Recover the amino acids of this structure.
């Protein structure tokens, strides 16, 4: 794919030119690629991976429904510096895990359970996650989250509870949850909360 840095026929060109090149806009970038007719061999492996994509998109639409969760995935994209949407990011991580033969349990319903001047409390629930182990990683920037706290399974509420502490008063913290069980790659996006003033 070639980026266009000056006009080539026009800034708004799109579509094919004969059977040679295709102009298109991708995330605000005017680009050109060679015209190709994609092959579709439908091998067993290809069909399996397509199934992973279909399943992952369905899970995204079924579970990632809150503005808070969508914003968290967008922050994760900023962290890893990829030109993705929140959906692209989630599907990419999930398909990569499934392709390796790992599980990607669904984590959903991030719930803020209270913020004080020295701690951030929240919970995460999901399908079939009670037998797993989770950690919340947190820090002061999107890219540096060196601290962690293990989650505690709340059997009565069927959720994982987390307490990030000690924290500095009146400070923004970034955090995400990751599954620590072997061959389970589930994670959340990157959430942001500010502690209260002392």
């Amino acid at each position: 794919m070639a980026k266009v840095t000056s006009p080539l026929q026009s800034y708004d060109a799109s579509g094919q030119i004969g059977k040679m090149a295709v102009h298109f806009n991708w995330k605000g970038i005017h680009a050109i690629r060679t015209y190709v007719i994609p092959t579709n061999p439908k091998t067993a492996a290809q069909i399996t991976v397509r199934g992973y994509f279909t399943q992952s998109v369905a899970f995204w639409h079924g579970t990632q429904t809150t503005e808070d969760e969508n914003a968290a995935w967008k922050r994760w994209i900023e962290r890893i510096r990829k030109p993705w949407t929140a959906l692209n990011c989630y599907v990419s991580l999930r398909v990569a895990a499934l392709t390796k033969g790992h599980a990607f349990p669904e984590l959903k319903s991030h719930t803020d359970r209270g913020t004080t001047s020295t701690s951030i409390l929240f919970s995460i629930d999901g399908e079939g996650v009670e037998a797993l182990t989770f950690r919340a990683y947190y820090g002061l920037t999107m890219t540096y989250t060196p601290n962690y706290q293990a989650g505690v399974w709340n059997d009565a509420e069927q959720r994982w509870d987390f307490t990030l502490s000690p924290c500095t008063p009146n400070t923004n913290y970034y955090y995400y949850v990751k599954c620590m069980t072997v061959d389970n790659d589930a994670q959340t996006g990157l959430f942001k909360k500010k502690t209260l003033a002392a």
